[in-house]
Each structure stands twice: as structure tokens, then as C-alpha cells.
Design a protein that fits this description.
- This protein is an alpha/beta fold and about 900 residues long.
- Helix content is about 55%, strand content about 15%.
- The protein has four domains: about 5-195 and about 460-475, no CATH class; about 255-435, Beta-Lactamase (2-Layer Sandwich), CATH 3.30.450; about 495-635, Alpha-Beta Plaits, CATH 3.30.70; about 665-830 and about 890-895, TIM Barrel.
- The strands form five sheets. Strands 17-18-20-21-22-23-24-25 form an eight-stranded mixed β-barrel, surrounded by five helices. A five-stranded antiparallel β-sheet has the order 2-1-5-4-3. Strands 11-12-10-15-16 form a five-stranded mixed β-sheet, with helices on both faces.
- It is rod-shaped.
- InterPro entries: Biofilm_reg_signaling, EAL_dom, EAL_sf, GGDEF_dom, Nucleotide_cyclase, Rev_trsase/Diguanyl_cyclase.
Length: about 900
């Protein structure tokens, strides 16, 4: 089962969303730059270099994972990091791909370049990751502070355009957030994000970014429209005002042309006074004849504009000498620049040649533009309009000249909106510009756009986390379900699942057949070759069994090396059962090649068919298990079909086990003693303590029945301890009457192999007062075979304490005679089966003689068991046997009857 690391999965999703945000935002804005038709600076809030750098950093972080083992990802991340470094360098050196100078703060390019360099280096050491976490975290906090400052300052901090400043700061915040997120990743590789989550995230980011672009475009188009309206309104109002002034001056000139000669000059003076009285913005009237200025009448006596008109080259450049007889308007500077610009209006006058000299006559009216415009109502607006008098001279909407400081602000801070043209009949066409001078309103709109875009990214992030978490929960649910139903090692169904499958059908259609498969000697493989070999062997076996039974039933791993197969409709088809079980045995018997080992195995199979006597599913499984154990008892690699007698036998064993436990607890067991005599004089030299269980009055249970059961259940340990204590107590009592006898006690293999046996024996001897030389321990050959070195060591220590050691039932086991030469043994006891055949089987006589000779040659004493007749006693004595034991000398009796 894949372990789902929630924190790592969340980091992976956050990295996807943040990195994709940088990539998508930069690409969408780049596309907008190329698609936007006007290509005005108003719409170009970012430089191409900055956008390329952000896109490259986004791609580099998307592929960046210090723990990734996929080289193409590492190479791709580094390649994009190099592109980001190149874009940052291009932005710092001028941005050769940009039509307009977006005036991005150099700190943005440095941030992109440094981040690109860091990603390219891919430093994996602990200090580098820690440094990345600290620096990225501090940079993110600093960037957040800069964003918050935009709420209090109307001037953009990182770019000329408010949107450019805020969005670039937001992109930097996302960039540093992504770096910090990657620095917190664990030592394992970030898990992959699903395709659905990636598709939803990218789609959501495209929508969020596009929505921000649409809002931005709408706001900029609205601002441009307002700028266009302001410029056109300025041009129209100036034209109307110019026509009004020209109409007034033309009427004055017409009157002057028709005044009678006698009163002509007087009437002109009266008109001049009236005009100065009625037209507050009229500064001066200058009469011209040809190239000469005849006279000047000024509102203020200390102002003379005549010299200004003669000396101002800019005004003279605007005056067309070829149109002296036409009305013309020229713009000139004021002798005092802070008082604004002056409008010089030339009106031709035709005087009567009888009274005036011939030539080109005309009147220059000098109008104060700021005063002239003062009567116009000025609405408060962040948009300012300017009239271009020349390439370097701008006239603001109030009629004042633009100062160098204001011109610098317009060039470096204000946003250009629209360029129009002021067209009149009497003046050269002048360009009219509109600028977004006050950016407060635009920055408020930019803040709203930024918040909408960031909110969109946050929504996408939560959506991606939710989708990915739900997907992982679904996967985890499937995995947990699979784990709950299947065995982790083999992938087969587990015990719970197979039991539920049996239960689902058990009461509906009574046609189930269960095969209980258990491997023979599998524990030996685990112990000798290792658990990893055993695990691999089980996996191979599961594959083999699946190929055989996968289509006709359900296979499960029931336990360690136990498999359960459930099928249907095989009750009356013994041939099909035999064929199936034979296939299974053959599959199990095929050699296994695990690493450098070649292993052979067999299995025992128990088969049980569902019957009316079975009331629960577990009974069916239990019957198959009984049959399997019966197959093992019959020699392994065998198939056994369940019979009712098996159940009865097992029930009897269970009842006996319970009764034995009650007998132990209620002290219902007793020791009987059988004498051991010397062959030479038939003197009793000892007694063998034999355990007896009187289950009912006068009815004893054979030790051959309950001793193996006690060994299988572990009850042999308390039994053995009780026997030793009673035998030692008996030995003490016997010494009071017969000082030369010993008590022989049969020793359990399980008890002997426990490390606490020797301390227990020493403690028992001490507590009962029994001396070691009064005790004789009888061991079977199996004790010596199971762990020879350990047995030799323990027996040697016991002999050193003067305890006699005897091998019981010698000749019935499989031990080699070579063991005898190194065993610390005092006696060997010839099994009764050999003695019983002395009269009828020559081979038994030969074997007894051989054993006696071998034992005596090794300085062992020999005891013949099962002596029941005088002939047997005579024979073993003649063969040189040392001691005898059997019914001929006495049956086992309680101590009181000795």
C-alpha cells in the first residue's frame, strides 16, 4: 500500500499552484501585450523581460525538487533558471524587446536573477535549504509590506504603472512563497499531483488571470476614453474661444477702417480704452505697418510687449510674412514666465490711403492666456491636458507653461492617454495631449484588480488542495479496503475476506467445498535461509496457485504458510477434487529459485464439503483444517478428505486437555515407582518414577495418551516440575530405609531445553534436601538430536554435580552411534521392544548383544527394560547387561506400597 504523506502532498499542490501562477500569469500578460491593438504605454504595465523572467522562474520552480531522481526534471529546471537569469540581465540593460519603457524597478530584475541563479545551483546541503527558507520567508514578508504600502501611498513603488507595481509585487510574493514552500519539503521526493488537479489548477489560473486582464483592459480603455474626451474638449473649447476673440478683433478692425478721417484717431483711442475696460485678459494692442511697429497701447504702463514681439524669435517663426494680409495667431512666452503664455493675434487693417501711408497695416492684440481661460469652469479630474507649442514646450490647460519638473513627472510618472489636435483657421495645428496625472484613482482600481487576481489564485489553491485531497482519500480508501481484504505479502485475499465470502454463501446455497493447504516444513526454510527467502517463496507459490484455481474459486492466504481455497459444486465430483488437489500438489512441488537458493517443498491438503451438520462457516473451515492435520499425520504431501471421526478424535483430545488441566490444578496425579535391579544379584538399586493419572476411580489414563498432549499444549512444564519435586521428596524418604537406591525421573524435552531448567533443578534439590547423587535423569535421544552442543553442555554440568544421566529407549531413535563417544552419559536403557522379541527374533538378540558390547566398551552401564519372564532376565544377564527393569521384578506402585 502506498503511504500517503499528507504534508508532502499539500506541499506538492502548493508548489504546483504557485509555480503555475507565475507561469500562467506571465504568459497570459505576454499574449495580451501582443494582442492589444493600440500598443500604448497605458496598456503596457510590464516589460517583456520581466514577464519572460517570471514565466521562466515559474517553469523552473514547477520542475524544481531537490529530492527528485528524474534527471530530465532537474535539467529542465536548470534550463529555465538560465532563461530567467538572461531575462533579468536583459531587463537591467534596457529591455531590447520592449516598445515602451515600463520603468520596472531594478529590484524586480535582481530578484528574478538571484532566484534563477539559486535554482540553477540546486544546493542540497542542510545549510543551503535552511538559508533558502529564511531568505525566502523574509523576502515574502518584505514584499507583503510593499503591497500594503500601496494602500497608503498613491505613487506606485515598483513600476510606473500602478497595476504593474502591484501585480509585480504580487508575483514576487508568490515567487518567494513557492521558494519557501519548497524549502520546507521533507527528505523524500515530492509526490506527483494528479492530471485532474493539474488541469483544474491551470484552467482556474488562466480564468483568474484572464479575468484580471479583462478588468485591467476595461479600466485602461475607460481611462483612455476619458483622456480622449478631455483632449477633444480642450481642442474644441480653445477653438471656440479663439474664434470669439478673433470675431471681436475683426469687428474692432472693421470699425477702425471706416472711421471718418477727422475723428479717426480719436475714435480709435476710445475703442482702445473700451476694449481694455471690457476685455480683462487683453494686455496690449500694437499697431504695425509693414515691418515696423508704429505704436503700442498697454494695459499697464510698465509693460511693453512691443520689444517682446520684436525680439521673440519663436513668435517670429510662427508669423507668416506671406500672409500679412491674413488673420494669424501666435503663442509666445510671457516676459514673466510664471504669469503664463501670451496669445499674439494679428488682424490686418486697411486704412484710407489719403489719411495713412501706403503699406501693410495690422494690429497685434496681446492676450493673457491664463486670464482668458480663467472664466472657464475647470472640473476636478485626475486627467490633465496639454497643448504642444513645440517639441519641448507644453502649455497646460490653465494657460501656463509646463515647468521642467512637471515635464519630468509627465515623462517618468504620469501615464499618457491620448494625443489629439487643435485645429483653427488662424493658427498652426497644435498637438493636444492628455495624461493620467494623478494616479490615486488608477491605483485604487489596480488594488481591486490585484485583490481579485490574488483571490482567484487562493480559490484555485484551495480547489486544487480539495480535489487532490479528495482524490488521495479515494485512493487511500481503495488501498485501505484492499489492505483490509487482501494479504499484504501475496496480494491474495486474507482470512477475514475469505471467511466473509464463505459466510455470504453459506446459508443460501449449501454447495461449498474448502481446501486447506499447509506447507510442509516451511518453518525450517525461514529459520535456515531467512525470512526474506520465505516471503519470496510464498509470493511465488501464490502466483502458481492463482494460475490453477483463480478462475474456479476464491483463493486466500489464511495464515503464515496456510492457504484456503473455496469453490462450489464439487460435493459429488470426487474425480474433480482429486484432479484439483493433484494439480496443487504438483505446483507446490515444483522447485523454487529464490536468489541463489533452489528450494523444494511439499504441502498437505485437507478437503471439507459443506454438509447439513455444519451450522456456521467456521465449522466448514475447521473441518478442512482437521483434514489437513490428518494428512500431515499420514506423512505429509498428502490429501485427506474430512471424515466425522476426525472431529470426534479432536473433541476427545480437547476434552482430555481440559481434564488434564483440572487434574493438575486439583492434584489428582500421582507417581508410581517401578524397581530397577542388578543383574548379578537381583538386588534393587533404584526406582523409576512413573506418572499416573487416575481419571476415574480404578481407571488410569495411559501416559502414551496424555504425555504427548501435555507436550503439545505446554502443560508438560508444570507436570514435569511437579514430578521432580515429588521424586526428590521420595528419594529423601527412601534414603532413610535404603541408603543405596536412586530415583530415576523421565525428563521432558521441552523442559530440558528451557534455560531455567538447571536453576529449577538446583532449587528443587535444595528445597527438598535431596542430594544430586540420589537422582537419575532419563532422557530420550531426541533431546540430544535437537541441540547437541547445548545438551552436552548442560548434561556435563549435571554430571559434575554427581547426577546420573541415562539415555532412555535407546535404539528406537535416529541418532548416530558416533554421538555416544562424546555424550556425558552414565547409562543406556535398551527399549522393551527389543527385549520382547528375544525368544522369536534372532535379530533382536543380536542387536541387544551389540548394544551391550558398544555401551560397555564406552564405559556405559546398560539397563534392559521390559523384562517380564525368567528367560528374558537370564538372557540379558548372560549377555553382560548390568541392570534390569520390568514386570518380572515388580509393577509400578505408589510409594506407600513399596
Amino acid at each position: 500500500m502506498r503511504i500517503i504523506q499528507v504534508d508532502q502532498q499539500a506541499r506538492s499542490v502548493v508548489n504546483l499552484v504557485l509555480s503555475a501562477s507565475l507561469l500562467v500569469a506571465a504568459l497570459v500578460i505576454l499574449c495580451y501585450r501582443f494582442i492589444e491593438t493600440s500598443q500604448l504605454q497605458l496598456y503596457q504595465s510590464f516589460s517583456v523581460s520581466f514577464l519572460v523572467g517570471i514565466a521562466a522562474i515559474g517553469a523552473a520552480l514547477l520542475l524544481f525538487d531537490l529530492n527528485s531522481k528524474r534527471e530530465w526534471l532537474n535539467l529542465g529546471s536548470r534550463c529555465f533558471a538560465l532563461i530567467a537569469i538572461a531575462a533579468a540581465a536583459d531587463g537591467l540593460t534596457g529591455g531590447i524587446f520592449d516598445i515602451h519603457d515600463a520603468q520596472i524597478h531594478p529590484a524586480l530584475y535582481y530578484a528574478i536573477g538571484i532566484t534563477g541563479g539559486w535554482v540553477f545551483l540546486r544546493l542540497k546541503s542542510a545549510w543551503a535549504v535552511r538559508l533558502q527558507s529564511i531568505v525566502a520567508g523574509l523576502a515574502a514578508i518584505a514584499t507583503l509590506i510593499i503591497i500594503l504600502l500601496h494602500f497608503n501611498y498613491s505613487t506606485p513603488l515598483l513600476a510606473r504603472h500602478p497595476s504593474g507595481s502591484l501585480i509585480s509585487a504580487s508575483l514576487l510574493l508568490i515567487l518567494f512563497g513557492a521558494l519557501w514552500n519548497l524549502s520546507t519539503a521533507a527528505a523524500s521526493e515530492l509526490p506527483r499531483v494528479s492530471g485532474l488537479t493539474m488541469l483544474l489548477a491551470i484552467g482556474g489560473l488562466v480564468i483568474a488571470t484572464s479575468a484580471g486582464i479583462v478588468l485591467f483592459h476595461h479600466d485602461m480603455t475607460e481611462a483612455r476614453s476619458r483622456g480622449e474626451e478631455a483632449a477633444k474638449a480642450l481642442a474644441a473649447s480653445r477653438s471656440v474661444l479663439g474664434r470669439e476673440q478673433m470675431s471681436l478683433l475683426l469687428r474692432v478692425a472693421e470699425r477702425w477702417e471706416h472711421y471718418p478721417a477727422g475723428i479717426h484717431d480719436d475714435m480709435m483711442e476710445l475703442d482702445i480704452k473700451a476694449i481694455f475696460r471690457d476685455v480683462a485678459y487683453l494686455e496690449s494692442l500694437i499697431l504695425r505697418r509693414g515691418d515696423k511697429l508704429v505704436w503700442e497701447r498697454a494695459r499697464a504702463e510698465d509693460y511693453r510687449f512691443r520689444e517682446h514681439l520684436l525680439n521673440d524669435a519663436f513668435i517670429n517663426e510662427q508669423f507668416d510674412e506671406h500672409r500679412k494680409d491674413a488673420v494669424q495667431m501666435m503663442i509666445g512666452s510671457h516676459p514673466e514666465p510664471d504669469k503664463g503664455a501670451l496669445l499674439y493675434v494679428h488682424v490686418p487693417v486697411t486704412f484710407d490711403a489719403q489719411d495713412y501711408e501706403n503699406g501693410y497695416w495690422g494690429v497685434f492684440a496681446v492676450l493673457n492666456i491664463p486670464r482668458m481661460l480663467a472664466n472657464q469652469v475647470a472640473l476636478r479630474s485626475p486627467i490633465f491636458t496639454y497643448t504642444a507649442v513645440s517639441e519641448d514646450l507644453l502649455l497646460d490647460q490653465a494657460g501656463f507653461w509646463v515647468t521642467p519638473e512637471t515635464l519630468d513627472y509627465l515623462q517618468n510618472h504620469a501615464l499618457f492617454l491620448y494625443q489629439g489636435k487643435m485645429v483653427t483657421e488662424y493658427i498652426i495645428d497644435r498637438p493636444v495631449y492628455s495624461f493620467m496625472y494623478d494616479l490615486t484613482d488608477l491605483q485604487a482600481r489596480a488594488l481591486l484588480q490585484m485583490l481579485i487576481s490574488v483571490a482567484g489564485i487562493i480559490i484555485v489553491l484551495f480547489m486544487a488542495l480539495t480535489v487532490e485531497r479528495n482524490r488521495e482519500l479515494v485512493i487511500q480508501g481503495r488501498q485501505l479496503k484492499f489492505q483490509a481484504e487482501h494479504d499484504a505479502l501475496t496480494g491474495l485475499y486474507n482470512r477475514t475476506t475469505i471467511e466473509n465470502a464463505i459466510a455470504d454463501r453459506f446459508h443460501h446455497k449449501r454447495d461449498l467445498t474448502v481446501l486447506f493447504i499447509d506447507l510442509d516444513g516451511f518453518t525450517l526454510i525461514n529459520d535456515s535461509l531467512g525470512l526474506h527467502v520465505g516471503d519470496r517463496l510464498l509470493q511465488v507459490l501464490a502466483q502458481r496457485l492463482t494460475k490453477i484455481v483463480g478462475k474456479i474459486g476464491t483463493l486466500a492466504r489464511f495464515g503464515g504458510d496456510e492457504f484456503l481455497f473455496v469453490t462450489v459444486k464439487m460435493h459429488g465430483d470426487a474425480e474433480a477434487v482429486a484432479h484439483l488437489t493433484q494439480e496443487i500438489l504438483q505446483a507446490v512441488a515444483q522447485p523454487y529459485r529464490i536468489m541463489h537458493h533452489k528450494i523444494y517443498l511439499t504441502a498437505s491438503i485437507g478437503v471439507a464439503h459443506q454438509s447439513a451438520e455444519q451450522h456456521t462457516p467456521l465449522e466448514l473451515i475447521q473441518h478442512a483444517d482437521m483434514a489437513m492435520h490428518q494428512a500431515k499425520r499420514l506423512g505429509h504431501n498428502h490429501v485427506q478428505i474430512y471424515q466425522d471421526s476426525m472431529s470426534l478424535q479432536l473433541k476427545a483430545s480437547a476434552v482430555m486437555r481440559s481434564s488434564l488441566q483440572e487434574a493438575i490444578e486439583r492434584n489428582q496425579l500421582t507417581l508410581h515407582y517401578q524397581p530397577i535391579v542388578r543383574c548379578s544379584d537381583s538386588a534393587t538399586v533404584g526406582y523409576e518414577a512413573l506418572l499416573r493419572w487416575e481419571r476415574e476411580p480404578g481407571k488410569f489414563v495411559s501416559p502414551g495418551e496424555f504425555i504427548p498432549l501435555a507436550e503439545m499444549t505446554g502443560q508438560i512444564i508444570p507436570l514435569s516440575e511437579w514430578v521432580f519435586r515429588r521424586a526428590c521428596e521420595t528419594a529423601v524418604r527412601l534414603q532413610e530405609a535404603e541408603s543405596t537406591v536412586k530415583i530415576a525421573v523421565n525428563l521432558s524435552t521441552l523442559h530440558f531445553n528451557r534455560t531455567e531448567f538447571a536453576p529449577f533443578l538446583a532449587q528443587t534439590l535444595a528445597e527438598t534436601g535431596c542430594k544430586p547423587e540420589w537422582l537419575e535423569l532419563e532422557l530420550t535421544e531426541s533431546i540430544l538430536m535437537d541441540n547437541t552442543d547445548y545438551a552436552v553442555e548442560v548434561l556435563q554440568k549435571l554430571r559434575e554435580q554427581k547426577i546420573t544421566i541415562a539415555i532412555d529407549d535407546f535404539g528406537t531413535g535416529f541418532s548416530s552411534l558416533s554421538y555416544l563417544k562424546k555424550l556425558p552419559v552414565d547409562k543406556v536403557k535398551i527399549d522393551r521392544s527389543f527385549v520382547a522379541g528375544i525368544r522369536t527374533h534372532r535379530a533382536d538378540r543380536v542387536l541387544i548383544g551389540s548394544v551391550i558390547k558398544i555401551a560397555q566398551s564406552l564405559n556405559f552401564e546398560v539397563v534392559a527394560e521390559g523384562i517380564e519372564t525368567p528367560q528374558q532376565a537370564e538372557f540379558v544377564s548372560e549377555m553382560g547387561c548390568d541392570y534390569m527393569q520390568g514386570y518380572y521384578f515388580g509393577r509400578p506402585v505408589p510409594f506407600e506400597e513399596l
